[in-house]
Amino acid sequence: MRMRKLFHKLHLWLGLASGLLVFIIAVTGSLYAFQEEITGIGRYHYVEKRNEALMLPTALSNVGEKIVPGKELHAVKYNGKSKAAELIFFGYNPNYYVIAYLNPYTGEVQKVKDMNRDFFRFILQGHYYLWLPPQIGRPLVASSTLLFIIILFTGIIIWIPRNRKGLKNLIWFRWKKGTRWPRINRDLHVVGGLYVTLFALIFAITGLVWGFEWFANLYYKSAGGEKSLAYTEVISYPQGRDDTLSVSEPLDKVWMLMQHEYPDAASIEVHPVHSDTASIAANANQSDGKYWKTDYRYFNQYTLDEITTYNIYGQFKDADFADKLMRMNYEIHTGAILGLPGKIFAFMMSLFIASLPVTGFILWWKKRKKRSHFSEPSADRCPLNRCP
């Protein structure tokens, strides 16, 4: 009995402490669920398919330098023969994130989009950082998520019934005509909360992978992982370059190699180098919407020899169970692992999770007012209004 009371207090006070943040995280998560489907509606994403070769990355990047001057090109991304190519400019100090959409056959500019002003980018910043600086917002979000996991477990303990009759009342909402709002609110929090707990735990655990480095490592190692989770620059020549081995236009050659090896890829991305020792990174997403199956490859910028990496971002065929689990983390978190039905389900679950702090707060407030009402002293017990 004492233990149950302790869990009840933990559930209450941790819920009050983190409820607002959990609400924001859940609402922004639900709003972001259909980001790809909504942004993909724009006509600038599409081009007329032609029976001719696509422009090479170097040619496209030359166009990009003119339309987005003074910014570093992070990647050139090809999205197939009927979609626009993307020139992705990304950098810190100053912070910028710009995507230029170009016709991959002609180099014609279809749209230049400042992603820092994009609605879904704003929503994502709230989901990750609560619109605070990352060094402040990220630990706040992660800590609130960790508290939420404790709240879920304590909720199960305090609401699990002690007898069969109580269990019957938890199976589903037992509302009749004329059921009052306090009962509806309680059932939404208790019955609905128990049903959503498993999915809330999945969202919370996959979210913590990005929130705490120690948690990500523990999660990965527990699954049997042995590689590095950190994405570090793959070095072409640790001790400097060798001009005698240089090849011309290596970025274009890597693109042609990737196009040859992945003719049916949903997208192919190549990254230009920005130092003498960096390798040329390239990746091919073999299934649209299934980013965990992406092949990541690295090539020496002077010889085009392929370089092996020892982190989880390598070729999919070399990934073991733990690597795949970490690669799947985004799709599991968003429900995209099950396609559009999974996203719809994740959207509804996120909205319901957002309602739990609200219904919980109402429950607490009603009980608080009720206790206050019954403890209010009567006039005959406090003559001459001398009650403190």
Q: Can you describe this structure in just a few lines?
A:
The chain has twelve helices and seven strands. It is α+β, with helices and mostly antiparallel strands and 388 residues long. The relative contact order is 0.12.
Explain what you see.
The protein is α+β, with helices and mostly antiparallel strands and 388 residues long. The protein has 12 helices and 7 strands. The protein has helices spanning 2-32, 35-39, 57-67, 119-129, 134-159, 164-171, 181-211, 213-222, 250-261, 321-327, 329-334, 339-375, and strands at residues 73-78, 85-91, 96-102, 109-114, 267-271, 280-285, 295-299. A hairpin with a 6-residue loop joins β3 (96-102) and β4 (109-114). α1 runs antiparallel to α4 (119-129), α1 (2-32) packs across α12 and α5 (134-159) packs across α7. The model is unreliable at 376-388 (pLDDT under 50).
What amount of the residues lies in strands?
A: 5-15%
The succession of helices and strands, N to C, reads HHHEEEEHHHHHHEEEHHH
Average pLDDT number: 87
Remind me, CATH topology of one domain? Nuclear Transport Factor 2, Chain: A
Record keyword descriptors for this entry.
elongated; 388 residues; single chain; disordered C terminus; alpha+beta; 7 strands; seven-stranded antiparallel β-sheet; Nuclear Transport Factor 2, Chain: A; 12 helices
What's the structural blueprint in terms of helices and strands?
Layout: H1 2-32, H2 35-39, H3 57-67, E1 73-78, E2 85-91, E3 96-102, E4 109-114, H4 119-129, H5 134-159, H6 164-171, H7 181-211, H8 213-222, H9 250-261, E5 267-271, E6 280-285, E7 295-299, H10 321-327, H11 329-334, H12 339-375
Antiparallel strand pairs: 1-2, 1-5, 2-3, 3-4, 5-6, 6-7
